[in-house]
Design a protein that fits this description.
Blueprint: E1 3-6, E2 9-15, H1 19-24, E3 38-45, E4 51-60, E5 63-69, H2 70-84, E6 90-93, E7 99-103, E8 111-113, H3 114-117, E9 123-127, H4 136-145, H5 182-191, E10 196-203, E11 213-216, E12 219-228, E13 231-237, H6 238-246, E14 251-253, E15 256-261
Parallel strand pairs: 3-8
Antiparallel strand pairs: 1-7, 2-5, 2-6, 3-4, 4-5, 7-9, 8-9, 10-13, 10-15, 11-12, 11-14, 12-13, 14-15
Length: about 280
Amino acid sequence: MPSVFLPHRALLRIGGADAGSFLQNLITTDIVSMAPDEARPGALLTPQGKILFDFMIWRDGTDFVIETEREQFEALTKRLTMYKLRAAVTLAPVDAEGVTVSWDSDAADGAADSRFARAGITLRRQAGKHGTDDASLYDGLRAAHGVVTSGADFALQDAFPHDVLMDLNGGLSFKKGCYVGQEVVSRMQHRGTARRRVVTVSAGTHLPASGTEITAGGKPVGTLGTVSGKSGLAIVRIDRAGEAMAAETPLLAGDVPVTLALPGWSGLAFPSTSDEASA
């Protein structure tokens, strides 16, 4: 399988004596339990528990590296700088042109992405350009396995971590103590109130454009995100989708009939009624 260069990604190095405790008390990811060669998803939340910034994070010696969308980079750096106050923490951009992702037989170098590991795929992330520019290959892999990213699949400040499966893919800790927005996401976890979830979308023909509404019986269920030919991703209300599927009501993306599936690695199932929605 190929290595794919992602020019729209940027890297931030976080170092200093207090780097670990600074991040552990601020972001959703439990970095203490993170393996030396592991890349985990993470987020910095609003106080209301919604995703303000999303990223991947891994260790580089005693430092940490955050990978995020280039358009988020400056604002994320400013926000982290605001939080560090007098802590012994340094923030510096990594001098690299984008990020390369490699998977299966080509996944030799870099940090292993925990999101794909849950689907049984070895995918590694590393700084710089080392592969093809055909990002559609990576989009197709994400679409097949329920791996989303902001911008393509959801808007920042509009999604909770549960919506994008961070509670299941290694990006959200309920054990490490307080961080920004922690009370809200912990309450969602304990009450089982998560209703919006990532699904894979498939059709007998090419899917319509990203942003197309998914409906059941004329009522909205969710919105298409990443589209890769006849496959794609969406964040949907699984209670509404489950009711439609139980009633054999067709699901449509625009006017294209679609089939929705929860990622197999998630362990989730569609409820048949709204009271049975799974967290």
